[in-house]
Amino acid sequence: MFGLVDCNNFYVSCERVFQPRYEGRPVVVLSNNDGCIISRSAEAKALGLKMGAPYFQVQEQLRQQQVQVFSSNYALYGDMSRRVMGYLGQVTPGVEIYSIDEAFLDLAGLDQHLGCLTERAHRIRTGIKARTGIPTCVGVAPTKTLAKLANRLAKKSPELDGVLYLDSAARRAWALGQVAASDVWGIGRQYAQKLTAAGIDSAADLARVSEAWARKHLGGVVGARLVQELQGQPCAGLHPSEDGTLSRQSISCSRTFGRPLTAFADVQAAVTTFLSRAAEKLRAQGDQAYVLTVYVQKNRFDPRVLPPYSRSATLTLPGGPSSDTLVLARYAERLLARLWEPGAVYHKAGVVLDGLEPPSTGHQLGLFETPTAAPKLMPTAPDRSQLMASLDKLNARFGRGTVRVASAVPRPAAMAGQSRAPWQGQAQWQSPAFTTRLEDLLTVN
C-alpha cells in the first residue's frame, strides 16, 4: 500500500507560515527573475490567474485585484521541505521524496498494526501542520499511480477533508470515473491527444484498455505498466529520493539574467557561476562528467530579434571525465567562444553535465586510444580533489559563492551602481530567509 503526501500550494503556504496576515487573501509566487507565476493560493486560482502566466502580462490584474506578490525564496522553501520530509521519515518505514513538495510513502502492512490507514493519513496531515504549518493532502492506494490519483481527488474535494483511501475495488472504480484520462500521472499532451482520438476520456476508460493496446499506443512496456497500476496491480516500488541519495543522470544549472548582457566577460562570468554550482552538485553525488554543454539564449519576445533564439555547443571532454570546477570552466569558456555573436543581446545561459559516472569507473577510450595516450587539458595536481573538497566545505559553511573561480567574479563596470551581479535575477518582493539566516529570524516582542 502506498501513500502520496502533497503540500498544498507549497510556495504560497511557506510564505503564509511566517506571514499569516495573508491567509484568506489571494497570493502568488513568481519564478526566478520575477518572470512568471509558479504558485497560486486557492483565492488567486479563483480569480482566474493561470500557472505560468508571465508577470508582465498580468501585473495590472494583480494590482487591481490586490493580489499579494512574492518573489521566489528557494532557501526558505528548501528548508521547509526538509522539515516536512524529515517528519515523514520519522513516522513511516519508507519515503520516496518525489519533488520539493511531494513524497510517496510505504504503508505496506501498517493497517494490521496501526489500524485504519485513513486515520493514519489524517494523523500524518495533522503532524505536518503542527510541526511546520504546511497544509497537505494524502492519497492512499495499492499502487503509486492510484495514490497520485487519490491525492488529486483529496485536494479537489473539500468533503474528503484532505484524505482519500482507495481501499476497495468499488472505491477505486468511483475514483477512476472522477478523473480525466489526460490527468492521469504519466499521460502527457501527446498521449492525451491519442486517448481523446480513441474515445478514452476518463481514467476508468484507460484502466479498461488491453495490455496490447497500451503497449502499442502508450510507449510499450511503460504504457502497459501504467494501465496495470490503474487496475490495482503495483508495478513499481519506492525509488531512491531526490534528497541526495538518488544519483542523477545529468545535472544542469541555468538562469534568466536580471538584465540583458552584451559583454563576453559578463556572460562568461554567468556561465562560470552556473557551472560552479553544477560541479558542486556533481561532486556531492560522487560522480564525474564526460560531456559538457553550454547554451545561450536571446529574448524570443523581442520583435527585433530574429531566430534562432538559442544556440548550444557540446563537448566530450578530451581529457576524460572530470568534476574539477577549474577544468570544466576552461572548457566552458571555449564552448562559449564558439557560440558568441558580437553585438548580440543575451537574456539567459546555462550548462548541462552529462555522462555521469563514479571516478572509479574506467572511462570510455576513443577507437585509436590507449589508456596512457588520453590527452589532458592541464596536469592534475595531486591535491586537486582535496582542493575541490575544501572549496565545497568553505561554501557550505560560509554560504554559497563565498569562494569562487576568478572568472565568476563580475567586472567592476558591470556592478556600477548595482548590489547584485548582472546575471542575478530580479527579486523585488522576496521575503526574508526566516529559517536559514540569523538576521532574518522572527522576533517576538
Short description:
The protein has 445 residues and is of the alpha+beta class. The protein is built from 16 helices and twelve strands.
Q: What this model shows, in words?
A:
With 445 residues, the protein is α+β, with helices and mostly antiparallel strands. It has three domains: 7-76, MutS, DNA mismatch repair protein, domain I (3-Layer(aba) Sandwich), CATH 3.40.1170; 91-230, no CATH class; 251-415, 2-Layer Sandwich (Dna Ligase, domain 1). 39% of the residues lie in helices and 18% in strands. The protein is built from 16 helices and twelve strands. The chain has helices at residues 10-18, 42-46, 55-64, 74-91, 110-114, 117-132, 144-156, 169-178, 189-197, 203-207, 211-217, 221-230, 264-284, 325-339, 384-398, 412-415, and strands at residues 2-7, 27-30, 37-40, 68-71, 94-99, 102-106, 136-141, 163-165, 251-261, 288-297, 310-316, 346-357. Strand 2 (27-30) and strand 3 (37-40) form a beta hairpin. The longest helix has 21 residues, at 264-284. The radius of gyration is 25 Å and the shape is globular. The model is unreliable at 373-382 (pLDDT under 50).
Q: How many H/I helices? A: 16
CATH level 3 topology of the largest domain: Dna Ligase, domain 1
Overall number of strands: 12
CATH-level-4 superfamily name of the largest domain:
DNA polymerase, Y-family, little finger domain
| Count of separate structural domains | 3
**C-alpha termini separation:** 47 Å
